[in-house]
Amino acid sequence: MQKKVLIVGGVAGGASAAARLRRLDEKAKIIIFERGEHISYANCGLPYYVSGVISERDALLVQTPQGMKGRFEVDVRTQSEVTRIFPMQKEIEILEKNGRRYIEAYDVLILSPGAAPVRPPIPGINDVEPFVVRNVTDIDRIKGYIDTQHPKTAAVVGGGFIGLEMAENLHVRGVETTIIEMSNQVMAPLDYEMAAILHDHIFNKGVNLILEDGVKAFTKNDKGTLITLQSGSEVQTDMVILAIGVKPEIKLAKEAGLAIGDLGGIKVNEKLQTSDPNIYALGDAIEVKNFVTGQPALIPLAGPANKQGRIVADVIAGKNSTYEGTQGTSIAKVFDLAAASTGANEKTLKKLGIPYEVSFTHSASNAGYYPGATRLSTKLIFDRKSGRILGAQIVGSQGVDKRIDDIAGVIRHYGTVFDLQDLELAYAPPFSSAKDPVNMAGYVAGNIISGDVEIVHWHEVKDMNPKEICILDVRTIEERKGKFIPGSLHIPIDELRSRLSELPKDKDIVVYCEIGLRGYLAYRILKQHGFTHVKDLSGGWVTYYPAVFG
Ligand code: FAD
Fold first, then answer.
1. This prediction's pTM
2. For residue 22, what are the β-bridge partners?
């Protein structure tokens, strides 16, 4: 029997479901309804069109309605908004841009309406009409404004990945940019000390970064827009981009009586079926299960949306596919750095009361003796008893993507830090080291679990009184110059054995070096010379500095 499958939303999830379904079922009648002008556009590429890094607008249009028709025999109806679902009758109502309304019946309905930019009722917001970045029409508006009005300044409200990507591309266009972020850090999936590396970098690039201050009001004036912040400070700007997050588009689902989760996304089961078995939902609009914590989560990312599209098509075609959850593997370019994360972060685990341990490593992206090696700062989060990896974050300029993907793969298979040690990874000097940064992260975490080293973290050391605790810097004189933990004692690692008598026997000792390796060596030396209360500062000065002084 021919199945009639209607799809709401024709971009990441919707288009992916349609293409997979056609490959599995040549007979199905498939119709995509898309409110906007375009389908299957490259949302993720939009910011780069503003700067000209992506120079051709057509490059953003990955697939066209004609292409979907020719290759997949899918009927694509753009500028057609689905305005109502009648679940009992298995029908939907469509409103075309020209005002025509009509009804279409379905056997199966797929909802992939995505998530809309959050637009809070800040005083003055309607006078200013800040730009948002969701689709090609939005980016056309922004680019058109820059091309014709030549703004000198821009304010980006929100320091998530869309805000940061917009800030970078505006900066590349020569627009003096200010980022305004209400929390104490950019890039929420990262923990504070990892984001602090980005703060330094953004600042050094000449972008004004305002943290811990939200927008209180927008006022239109003859110079453009005046933004008044909660603190009372003001930012005068020629244009405003609002990028403070996205909210699942659930209006249709809610009005149709479909179950909505506590976080405000459409509720689905592991088959991605909503509370109505004839209606499936996927992508940014749904609540997923967090793969690591098992808790409901909103994780708006393209990879999961595309995969869910495939699974929905499989299920509709009678295959036994299930969605096992989203771990939130993501990466963003932030000027010359890449910031990536996977699994749960420390903030989330703390909130949920899930026990964890953390280690920091700062390995070189490739062999140190080969030109061009750069630093990869890695935070690994794991269960202290079993070693199961719960999450990871990496910031660096080269090779961040492959390392986060290695760890993401291990997390997906419920792997441990010991599995990271065992990974046999491709090596030649231009690409890595014989012990890859991922192996190193596994060794360091393994040492912590086995008790070969006891660590202490930057925020604990920050609150220590150097009069009560001996903080020992084992770096070279050069490394220490002007950059050290106040009150710390300095004994370079190579002199440590001969200067043990300078160390107090009655105090706890915290050792630190530049990145943690020599601190570990010092720890081993001290322990074997009878110093019982010793700890190593995880990640050394490189973790401590941006987090405490950045
Ligand atoms: P969408 O792709 O947003 O598609 C939903 C579509 O449904 C929209 O076109 C909308 O017009 C349409 N629609 C909604 N309601 C109706 C209705 N009632 N009737 C008809 N049509 C309707 N993710 C990453 O993983 N990596 C990245 O680098 C990345 N960069 C991004 C950059 C930007 C600027 C943006 C905006 C997003 C980015 N994302 C990125 C997120 C990613 O694009 C989304 O997670 C993904 O597109 C979600 O797919 P979806 O199908 O759920 O929704």
1. 0.96
2. none
